[in-house]
Amino acid sequence: MRMAILKVARLGHPILRTVAAPVAAGELHKPEVQRMIDDMIETMAEYDGAGLAAPQVHVSKQITVYAVNANPRYPHAPAIPLTVLVNPRITALSDEQEEDWEGCLSVPDLRGKVPRYTRVRVEALDRHGKKLEFVADGFHARVVQHETDHLFGKVYLDRMRSFESLSFVREFLRYHAGATVPEE
Ligand code: NI
Fold this sequence. Notes:
Layout lengths: L30 H16 L4 E3 L9 E6 L11 E13 L4 E8 L2 E11 L1 E7 L5 E7 H14 L4 H4 L7 E2 H7 L9
């Protein structure tokens, strides 16, 4: 199958601020939807992203992909298998939040500290319409929250408690090195 690298929408594009449409179960068997999911995976890999949501590639549907494995840019990030979530819903399983660095392919060259729930329940469909339900912790929980936010018109900047930590990548590397900061 031929795959394609898709163009990534950047902050300011209205699609990033639009609530994406849920995907009808009958839509998932369509070749064009499956191809779009493959293209999202390809695009995420091309840009060394940890995750990508459909609105980031100009498709206003509730689909997100993520994976972390042996990413040369984040050698210390824990591995997360390739996951496709359709119509994800997230429930925090405790009030506990943790602040850590995030980046985003739609907000290029910046990093910031974002509070996220440390443990969440995820309910979604997989790419074939099968029901998924699992609990995500720590970094995995962070990635899921970041990607799901994209489906509801939010970016990580909206979740920051203050912009004091906001840094360009170069300054981040110089002054805050040691942290792993995937782009999602
Ligand atoms: Ni993002």
